């Protein structure tokens, strides 16, 4: 279930990761794994990046790598930076609302169980 | 609009392979059934062509009804839809008539007035197209409508042409004209042509009126403009 | 051709089938293959089957394009007004007291169980049936997509475009161009030589939907035209409905699926009427 939740927020996550630093596809996946999520399959990741690119929030660049073919690097555009700020705000609001609803039942369950 | 409807209907007809095959071959069967008796052969051929074209017209109008309904709901003229389709059907009819005229002209040399054969085939197909449309409006189903047309044609063949009831049948003029084609000193054409003109006008007018009434959308007025915004 | 290249070729084929330009399709496929090669994984393991990946990618491209430039919402004049509309067939009351006021730039959904009279109400709005009571006022320029028999089985999509375009005097080239453009928004590239009865059910319905907008009507009436759509096409269909709304048309959709109703302006619920 958690991985499904991530896919709903995937665009937001990718924008925020790219706000930190530019990266290529696999790199973003590895950073998400490092943050505690399961590996996002290529069939979900690349269309999401494509959508961001078509919306003008992200631009791409080919960079020759040391070994193998050139990789496609993703970077935020100006519009992308604005979008990140908007989404961070939206996420804060969403998170407080979610906390308000989710926290109480868990607390009472713990009390009842202990 | 009308030329587009006509050319579209023609394309549609050309894709109904089985129906077209019937239209082309059935009159041949009728003709061959009476091949040895000249006047009967011509008459049967003409009635056969008439039945085939009328049935094609019936099928075409029945199967087009739902799309015609949709088109007239968005503003197409029912008149253009009707006459466009009739034009396409008349075209097919004329081609079939021409083909059979060629057959008759090439295979028979015993006919005193060959041009009358052309005339009689032409008048037959020109009546058959609106006749099929008229039957499709009275009986909007392909099988039952085709049976009705078959009954009309059977009556046409069986009824004594000199009897008073015969003139009520749509293809009476065909009989008259075939007599003209076959007799060396025939009666004048006027009776036959008059009946043809009357029948054609009546069938077309009835079919057009009934078709238009059936297709015309419910008249609706636009809402009166208001200045209030919710 | 290696199996990776085969995967790439399948991807290109499917992308063009669903309406992506050949050039862009090749580029997308090339990018995908390069990434897979750089990661040292076979594309099929990385992205899944080519056909499924193509559908997802195409949908992402279309959604982005549609949402990239949303037009400001402007509500225009009332284009459909129903007041106390009722419909009775002999002894059966199908509709009773239906009220609706729809403005240009709004979307209304008619929902209800089967037998609640949804299609009848739409037919009344389209002018195919007369209401037995109440008033119906409606703008003249409408588009209409019935649930069944909306297309001619023996005609090709282009012939449909030409015929429908001719209703308002559009010439053939323009009608075909507009129709093809509308089709691509639903992920469909019409082929010139296929008659409607040989199209899949979902594709026939896409043709049905395209024909309802071909003449740029002010009011578009749709009767559950998404039968046979896969998930991506269903989403595209609703994207298209909201795109029409943003373009200034009013849209009335009969639906029994309650999925996307939070984005809709009016929801009219019909209940099955009792036998009298």
From TrEMBL, chain B:
Residues that span the membrane, as ranges: 18-35, 41-59, 80-105, 117-139
Keyword Membrane included in the entry's annotation: yes
Keyword Transmembrane helix: yes
Record protein name field: ABC-2 type transport system permease protein
Keywords on record: Membrane, Transmembrane, Transmembrane helix
From TrEMBL, chain C:
InterPro entries in the cross-refs: AAA+_ATPase (IPR003593), ABC_transporter-like_ATP-bd (IPR003439), P-loop_NTPase (IPR027417)
Signal sequence extent: none
Keywords: ATP-binding, Nucleotide-binding
SUPFAM superfamilies: P-loop containing nucleoside triphosphate hydrolases (SSF52540)
Coiled-coil ranges from the UniProt annotation: none
Source superkingdom: Bacteria
Pfam families: ABC_tran
Residue ranges occupied by any ABC transporter domain in the UniProt entry: 80-276
Transmembrane feature ranges: none
PANTHER family, A to Z: ABC TRANSPORT SYSTEM ATP-BINDING PROTEIN, ATP-BINDING CASSETTE, SUB-FAMILY H, MEMBER 1
Name the record gives this protein: ABC transporter domain-containing protein
Species: Actinocorallia libanotica
